[in-house]
Design a protein that fits this description.
With 577 residues, the protein is α+β, with helices and mostly antiparallel strands. The protein has 3 domains: 252 residues, Rhopdopsin 7-helix transmembrane proteins, CATH 1.20.1070; 123 residues, Jelly Rolls, CATH 2.60.120; 163 residues, Alpha-Beta Plaits. 56% of the residues lie in helices and 16% in strands. The strands form 3 sheets. A 7-stranded mixed sheet has the order 10-12-13-11-14-15-16. A 5-stranded antiparallel sheet has the order 1-2-8-4-5, with helices on one face. A hairpin with a 4-residue loop joins strand 6 and strand 7. The radius of gyration is 43 Å and the shape is rod-shaped. The two termini are 58 Å apart.
């Protein structure tokens, strides 16, 4: 298994383990959202547009709906009747789904038929449990036959259909809050994971996914009932924060997708549409915040309709990326399908107003959020591995191109340009001997046997020249070659190479009618003797020695050891072989 595949496998396994922890944390509310012993649902419910209609409903039986149906939040007033029985007592608390409203009137009918009325403002409510708001009831524990609750300006159907009286009260910290706190801790893992990756990748999609995780972390916190442990936040602000953080997370997810999907796997208009849909969600959240109190349930329907527009844009854009064969979109598709399903469920529930178990929807949304965060994190890890693989491929390609640029294409030897640029460093590394070799009468080989034969001769010569830690071989051009050597007996080794050329060419090239020989000019150039000498100066000296070898009859070497090299005063030893 390649290194990248092994890393990807480990990341996926770790993410799946983390996902299991998320799912367990999200499952806790489903297992523990019972509100306590003696929980009492409304016996009947009714709706009124003004106080006179509400008073008429309280005094009679007409207009009441005594079944779990026909719930709505469009009427100005919603009435709930709780029948406690002849031996009943007032429960300790009232709770309902977390949502905004203007106020509440509570009528308690005692066994003797007298009725006491109490008014409760939203400030007397506090968040408690998973997506719940709670208020302490007046006259708790006192004998009563009936409790009638009038909600003024309810904004969400769930706060009516899920209204309950219960005793004992809900604890501030229960098993549900422990699991939600664990969930918030788990959400920090992908948050820090993305922050760490951003230091390496510097891609904007990571910042947007950090925003997604941050908003989802805040959303989970506000829906958990943990808020009272941190600050005394009004129930209206908590309810509004739930919608704001969810819209913020959804908008950030759309922005993240617009940058995360590969550039060549989504058409530009669809990418722009995702960003416009993200802006649409932000404006939708602002609309909800500004109008929820005076539009009541209609505001929520408009809010969901606008959300449906953004979901439609998302589906079309994702479809385009899928058809284009995008890799990143597969992870996004897997992560968003649960969110889309719960979104559709929530929209349908809002439109029909007859959701029997709306709490199950919010539990499902917790699962969907977990899946989105974790699967997208796996996709980001996959992108990181893919980018690292592409980087390695590009480096390998660049290295290969560099190698090709440094090498002569015919012989594979280093070229002159490469050596000129590295000459000073090579001298410091001890390459003190330069040998310049030139094939004798090479032009006649090309003229008589053709350039293909000449190329074969050049390749045979290149195969003769050494290239190891103490020797570098260079093709200077045409039939001229250079050896740079270091270490003891460098001159003797160069001469052995020159003499070996004839035998190697004779062995490798058929059809030649004479041996191929080489002449050589060699100069030993200790770096400490001439620290300012340039490649051009040393090359000119070796070329002069080569010319001497040619004039002396070819197939020989002329060698010189430099002892002083100042430009005006020079000491040297010359020998010819």
């Amino acid at each position: 298994m390649h290194g990248g595949e092994a890393i990807r496998t480990r990341l996926i396994r770790a993410a799946l383990r983390l996902l299991a922890g998320f799912l367990l944390a999200f499952a806790a509310p489903a297992l523990a959202h019972e509100r306590g012993a003696g929980t009492l649902a409304p016996t009947c419910h009714a709706y009124a547009e003004n106080s006179a209609q509400a008073d008429a409903l309280r005094k009679g039986t007409a207009g009441w709906i005594c079944s779990n149906s026909d719930w709505n939040s469009y009427s100005r007033l919603a009435l709930l009747r709780f029948d406690l029985g002849p031996d009943g007592r007032v429960p300790a608390q009232y709770s309902s789904r977390l949502a905004r409203f203007e106020g509440m009137r509570i009528d308690i009918e005692r066994p003797d038929g007298s009725v006491s009325t109490h008014l409760i403002s939203t400030h007397e409510f506090f968040p408690r449990g998973h997506m719940l708001q709670v208020a302490n009831l007046p006259e708790a524990g006192q004998p009563a036959r009936r409790v009638t609750i009038e909600l003024i300006g309810p904004t969400f159907t769930g706060m009516i259909s899920e209204a309950r009286l219960h005793d004992p009260g809900l604890p501030v910290i229960g098993p549900e809050q422990v699991w939600i706190a664990l969930l918030c801790g788990l959400l920090l893992v992908p948050l820090f994971f993305n922050l760490a990756l951003y230091r390496v990748l510097r891609d904007r999609f990571l910042l947007w996914h950090i925003s997604v995780v941050g908003f989802m972390l805040a959303h989970t916190f506000f829906t958990s009932g943990l808020v009272p442990l941190i600050a005394d936040v009004p129930i209206g602000a908590v309810s509004m924060s739930v919608a704001m953080t969810f819209c913020g997370g959804a908008a950030s997810a759309l922005m993240m997708a617009s940058y995360f999907i590969e550039r060549d796997r989504m058409d530009l208009p669809y990418r722009r549409a995702l960003r416009l849909a993200a802006l649409w969600l932000v404006l939708n959240a602002a609309f909800y915040a500004a109008t929820v109190d005076w539009l009541q349930g209609w505001c929520l329907n408009i809010y969901f309709a606008n959300s449906a527009v953004a979901m439609a844009v998302l589906c079309v854009a994702i479809g385009n990326a899928v058809l284009r064969g995008g890799r990143a979109v597969k992870f996004l598709l897997a992560s968003w399908v649960p969110l889309l399903i719960t979104g559709i469920w929530q929209i349908v529930s809002s439109v029909t107003g007859n959701e029997a178990e709306p709490m199950a929807l919010f539990v499902a949304q917790r699962f969907a959020i977990a899946a989105e965060v974790l699967i997208t994190s796996i996709g980001i890890a996959d992108r990181f591995i893919q980018l690292r693989r592409d980087r390695d491929d590009h480096r390998e390609l660049a290295s290969e191109l560099t190698r090709l640029a440094e090498r002569d294409p015919l012989t594979g030897l280093l070229n002159r340009r490469t050596i000129e640029g590295r000459f000073a460093a090579l001298r410091e590394d001890g390459f003190a001997t330069m040998a310049l070799l030139d094939l004798d009468h090479f032009k006649s080989i090309n003229d008589r046997f053709g350039h293909m034969a000449g190329d074969q001769v050049l390749r045979a010569v290149a195969a003769t020249l050494p290239e190891d830690r103490d020797a570098l071989s260079i093709r200077m051009g045409g039939e001229e070659f250079m050896l740079l050597l270091r270490g003891k007996r460098a001159a003797q080794r160069a001469e052995q190479v020159r003499q070996a050329i004839t035998a190697r060419v004779a062995r490798d090239v058929d059809g030649l009618d004479r041996p191929v020989t080489a002449s050589m000019g060699l100069v030993e150039i200790p770096a400490q003797v001439m620290p300012e000498a340039t490649f051009a100066a040393i090359y000119a000296r070796a070329d002069g020695l080569l010319y001497q070898a040619k004039r002396a009859g070819r197939n020989r070497a002329v060698r010189e050891r430099m002892t002083v090299f100042t430009g005006h005063n020079r000491g040297e030893e010359s020998t010819a072989a």
